Amino acid sequence: MKIFLSGACGFIGSHLCRAFIERGYKVIGVDNLITSSQDNLRDIIKNKNFLFIEHDISKELYIADKIDWVMHFASPASPPDYSRYPIKTLKVGSLGTLNCLGIAKAKKAKFFLASTSEVYGDPQVHPQPEEYWGNVNPIGLRSCYDESKRLAEALTFAYHRQHKVNIRIIRIFNTYGPFMRADDGRVVSNFINQALEGKDLTIYGQGEQTRSFCYIDDLVRGILKLMEVEYQLPLNLGNPSEVKVVDLARKIIKMTRSSSTIKYLPLPQDDPKRRCPDIKEAKKVLGWKPKISLSEGLKKTIEYFRNLKHSA
Ligand code: UDP
Questions:
Q1: Cβ-contact 234, 167 below 8 angstroms
Q2: Strand partners for 26
Q3: For residue 154, what pLDDT band results from cuts at 50, 70 and 90?
Q4: Residue 15: helix, strand or coil by DSSP?
Q5: What's the 151 CA to ligand 1 centre distance in angstroms?
Q6: Eight-class DSSP state of 251
């Protein structure tokens, strides 16, 4: 089995590379490293089954090898990252997706798209099922990410309908765990690092907004299962247990035994008020549901960031 994976050095991409190498697959990993680092692959970069190509997948790439799966996971994905690189984010969701679909078509490979719960925007339906079309501001601060992923889904379906490319689309809800960047600006990495450093935890708004946090191992397990079944519609993957941001902050302060307090900052534009996946489809199609509780996942993630600080 040979996998082509864009975004190989990213948080989710690096976990996938490791899972594929463990299974004995060959992996060609591509990344332009604008929001990630090769450090995330330090344990496998020299593996004989792994080839790393530093390249921006928004630009064409010719691959000589036979490929079984093209997996498109490249994109800035945290709100501060995609706000810093709005055009690159739009390019990787549009041109990057086209390039990956082109490789899949040429190689007669299956195509796997990492889409996002952001396609639902600031949702008016709770929890969000796959059939919900979303509530997205097309010119808001988040639109570079939301709209490029919506286009990526449309492109994937166009290749599926016109060229019969065999596709998978997952809509990934908030996911966390080791190999997130400490400074990626997401809520879990921010709070843990602030707590470990004794700094105030920065809550945007009143912290009444909710998210549902999935531990990375659960997500990877879902992705591997989806590769084994024939299901070509978008599928939500996430943890359906919903928490308020303020409760997450309190939990992290407690778990790290930190002396930090909470600081309230303005809420960014278009920040979704509630987000929670409806995963009945994933349960039915994959027999999958998350197994790792927030407490267990946070414990492992706190441990990871603590060790990073000690080894720095
Ligand atoms: N958030 C926060 N403090 C932070 C970072 C994020 O209160 O330091 C909030 C953010 O406004 C959002 C939620 O936490 O409501 C999740 O933010 P994140 O950037 O992790 O992902 P999102 O789900 O918004 O893409």
A1: no
A2: 2
A3: very high
A4: helix
A5: 24
A6: H
Mean local confidence (pLDDT), 32-51: 96
pLDDT digits (tens, 9 = 90+) for 182-237: 999 999 999 999 999 999 999 999 999 999 999 999 999 999 999 999 999 999 99
Of the residues 145, 201, 211, which should be mutated to test ligand 1's pocket, given the most ligand atoms within 8 Å of the CB?
211
pLDDT tens for each residue of 292-305: 999 999 999 999 99
Cα 158 to ligand 1 centre (Å):
33
- CB distance 93 to 75 below 8 Å: yes
Q: Do the beta carbons of residue 100 and residue 156 sit within 8 Å?
A: no
Query: What are the structural domains of the chain?
Result: 2-179+214-240+273-291 (3.40.50.720)
290 Cα: distance to centroid of ligand 1 (angstroms): 21
Q: Residue whose CA is closest, atom 24 of ligand 1?
A: 271
Q: Are 103 and 74 within 8 A, CB to CB?
A: no
Residue-wise pLDDT tens digits, 259-284: 999 999 999 999 999 999 999 999 99
CB-CB contact of 135 with 123 (8 Å): yes
Q: Which residues contact 82 (CB under 8 A, 6 or more apart)?
A: 75, 76, 89, 142, 144, 145
Q: Would the pLDDT of 16 be above 90?
A: yes
Tell me the average pLDDT across 19-37.
Answer: 98
Rounded to whole angstroms, what are the CA distances from 17 to 3, 29, 88, 139, 223? 9, 8, 23, 34, 12
CA distances to 19, 130, 277 from 123, in Å? 33, 12, 11
Whether residue 129 has a cis bond before it, omega within 30° of 0: no
pLDDT value for 310: 86
Tell me which residue has tokens 């990993």.
29
Instruction: Name the one residue in this structure whose structure tokens are 């509630």.
Output: 274
From the CA of 78, give the closest atom in ligand 1.
19
What is the residue whose two structure tokens read 């060229």?
Answer: 163
State pTM to two decimals.
Answer: 0.98
Q: Are 248 and 210 in contact, with CB atoms under 8 Å apart?
A: no
